[in-house]
Amino acid sequence: MPATARSTLETYDAVIAGGGHNGLVCAAYLARAGLRVKVLERRHIVGGAAVTEEFHPGFRNSICSYTVGLLNPKVIADLDLHGHGLHIVERPVMNFLPVSDDRYLLTGNGRTKGEIAKFSPRDAERYDDYCAHLERIADVLRALVLKPPPNITAGFTVSTLRELARTATLGKHLSRLGLDGQQDLLDLFTLSAADFLDRWFESEPIKALLGFDSIVGTYASPFDPGTAYVLLHHAFGEINGKKGAWGHAIGGMGAISDAIAKDARAHGADIETGAQIVEVIMESGRTAGVALADGTIVKGRAVAANMTLKRLYTELLPKTAVPPEFLARMERFKYGSGTFRMNVALSRLPDFKCLPGERDHLGAGIIIAPSLNYMHRAYTDAREQGWSREPIVEMLIPSTIDWTLAPPGAHVASLFCQHVAPTLPGGRSWDEAREDVADLMIATVDRAAPGFAESVLGRQVLSPLDLEHEFGLTGGDIFHGQLSLNQLFSARPALGYAAYCGPIEGLYHCGSGAHPGGGVTGAPGHNAARAILRDLKPFSFLS
Ligand SMILES: Cc1cc2nc3c(=O)[nH]c(=O)nc-3n(C[C@H](O)[C@H](O)[C@H](O)COP(=O)(O)OP(=O)(O)OC[C@H]3O[C@@H](n4cnc5c(N)ncnc54)[C@H](O)[C@@H]3O)c2cc1C
Q1: Closest ligand 1 atom to the C-alpha of 518?
Q2: pTM of the model
């Protein structure tokens, strides 16, 4: 068929535009409710940023997102993900922070307080209180993750009543915190991570270890206001019932997406890969389906967009279809994580100067960033020069507990590196800088673990530009847009559009550009399915 000829496939109740894990979650819930669902994914596999792929002969890894903690327990249970083969295990120890050639901080597995006491007995004493404090606030957020935030509406309509009810529910949850807790929550939304952590701790290593979460996927200094929220965003997870824990999906993050896809298929959803959507079709002022690059038109009563909302509204819809103020907001929506991602095939495990040998610290999230000042410098350098000579690297070696990923005796590691500029200064392209920066990341690990560079058998390098091109992540943003207060809750993606749909009838948002934002949570997919069912099948039940 010539590329321009258009053939129309059958009409579905819902077309899911993008097969990231959230698109799949949305599809699974809709299929379970009896809707006819079609998922269209442009890559050769589903999962979006939650995939496992072979990146070097014989070596597989979670090539983008690499650690599980935020996946919502209700989604896991509702979609029977364990029944579909998902097996999640906790890290044997939580984090390992090399501090100098002979000092380190190693947390988790009952040793956290003893380890913190090496640097500050006072900090060790305060640690439990800090966790309880954060946990109390994280609990409130956990309860809100699967609820649409109140959608600010103009004027007074029937939907105003629904939104008032949502505001009341939000108020009820917040009131559980008491006045003090509410003030703390406000602080977390507005303070810098450094200010927040300074209230609790005095020693640099513990502040660095905890503060790392405040700049994950966030192109900012930990001294920037708003970064305390990013820290909180990473605290509301749990695995296997253990709050705040992080772990591995056996078989990599793709095992999560595969289990969700299995559930969707088992309930009748049709999932197609290699299906690039080039246009969202409009008919009589509302969405009627999508057009694929090969000319096929797939019609649907509803279209749920899993791709970034900037891509959706600025590239896939006729400009005249989108109200100009909303279009301007989507153009301004801030993207850019400062993330550089590598996967490396290793002939042997690294040997750290500060803690030699193959012990359980190699199963931790290994953070090379010994202080908040180091992270600050990495950010300011990146702003000026594109990257820092001393970048932040988190390394995870999943093959220490998952033997499915590498040949016997060999290993795979994820290097999650920051900060790099989403776009390089002086008009330089990431295509020119990619390999130099990759060498720098390897050298950074090698300084802490001499011999590491030599052990690298193969590598996959993903600059911000690669993340955009390969995975469709606008600006390389791992969360589909920054997690700043003006882009969260009722303002995600914009005030008045927090109900999982924008201004176009029949077009819904089921990806991380909607509340509660990025991470492998399944939450936007769950919440979008609820919104779609409310409109398409008002009497169906989605608890
Ligand atoms: C490098 C990196 C590291 C991360 N680490 C972690 C981590 O360890 N833990 C964690 O919880 N989160 C992590 N994240 C964040 C998390 O992975 C993402 O926020 C989440 O996976 C996004 O899911 P999604 O389904 O909303 O969107 P996506 O995964 O982005 O899925 C969108 C899908 O839409 C498809 N698509 C786009 N355009 C089109 C089109 N025109 N036609 C058809 N299909 C299209 C894309 O190919 C993609 O499959 C990381 C992300 C990255 C990039």
Answers
A1: 19
A2: 0.95
pLDDT single digits (tens) 206-237: 999 999 999 999 999 999 999 999 999 888 88
Nearby residues of 457 by Cβ (< 8 Å), 6 or more positions away: 56, 59, 344, 345, 346, 347, 410
Token readout for 466 is 């690669």
Six-digit token string for 474 = 């606008």
**Who lines ligand 1 at CB under 6 A?**
17-23, 40-43, 48-50, 64-67, 70, 276-277, 306-307, 311, 339, 341, 416, 467, 471-473, 478-480, 511-512, 518-520, 524
Contacts of 158 by beta carbon, 8 Å cutoff, 6+ apart: none
Q: Which long-range contacts (CB under 8 A, 24 or more apart) does 330-333 make?
A: 330/493, 330/494, 333/309, 333/481, 333/487, 333/493, 333/494, 333/513
Answer whether residue 2 shows pLDDT above 60. Answer: no
Least confident of 23-32, 163-172, 259-268, 363-372: 163-172
Give the tokens for residue 203.
């020693």
Distances (CA, A) of 119 to 79, 388, 394: 45, 27, 21
Q: Which atom of ligand 1 is nearest to the CA of 23?
A: 25
pLDDT given at position 522: 98
Structure tokens at 401: 């507990």
